[in-house]
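tl;dr need the bound structure. longer version: we got a ligand (2-acetamido-2-deoxy-beta-D-glucopyranose) that a collaborator sent over and nobodys looked at where it sits. i said id run it. heres the input, straight from their email, havent touched it
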Amino acid sequence: MAHSSSQLCIHALTLLCLIVTPTSAASFHDEMDITFGGERAKISNGGQDLSLSLDQYSGSGFQSKHEYLFGRFDMQLKLVPANSAGTVTTFYLSSQGAGHDEIDFEFLGNTTGSPYTIHTNVYSQGKGDKEQQFHLWFDPTGAFHTYTIVWNAQRIIFLIDNIPVRVFNNHEAAGVPFPKSQPMRVYASLWNADDWATQGGRVKTDWTQGPFTAYYRKFNANANIVGGNSKSTGSVNENQAWKTQEIDAAGRNRIRWVQKKHMIYNYCNDHKRFVNGLPTECKRSRFL
Ligand SMILES: *[C@@H]1O[C@H](CO)[C@@H](O)[C@H](O)[C@H]1NC(C)=O
């Protein structure tokens, strides 16, 4: 009996392992171009890992070779540890040119022991001003965590470790521009922004602590590549769930929890800033 039940257990574990094994990530060599910082951006481990560094002369960054029109974009990041004040690490989507669209994750560093701020924003046709900021429920410098942007025709969803933290719905019917026709690339960077980033610019980058380094891995895009077919880079199973992904009841509970416990700024609550009334979408969505 003991034997057969442990066999069962092994079989059950194998099955579980098969189910939870993440699909292999795309190679940074194949998917990305280094855009600035030269040697400060390093791809290693056969294309699986990428690190960006910042010193007092320059930061560094990269961008995707492909342009996309809608998709799900996952990246694992491990942020600059200890005294990261003044540094900004980014992972975002952006189109080019005037009237651009953009979907942002930005990670604002802090002094040792003080929390990072996760800054999110959406630009449509050149206009942003839709910031939401969060503190995290974990230390983003201790281990890799997954940051995800889902972008489909109905909504944009920001997820952290698969927990939705923000949704920006398409309210075009009410006259709110929504990014849906300009192709975007994936971008990432590490740069110095000590004129504004940490505690409103009061805390400066301590260059004696440099160079500062942030780590990226497991990039995956399940996305429509412009000029190509709908393609899932790196994953064997083409998962198209993002095309209609929405926030279900469980997701709503998660967003409520994040917004109640971890949100530190929401433009939709900033009556001082929008003296002539909150933006239209703020009055229409329950979860922004
Ligand atoms: C830094 O830490 C302070 C609290 O010590 C916090 O108010 C602030 O939001 C944190 N983040 C930034 C980017 O300043």
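gonna send this back to them w/ a short note. The pocket of 2-acetamido-2-deoxy-beta-D-glucopyranose is lined by residues 108, 110, 114-115, 117, 197-199, 264 (CB under 6 Å).
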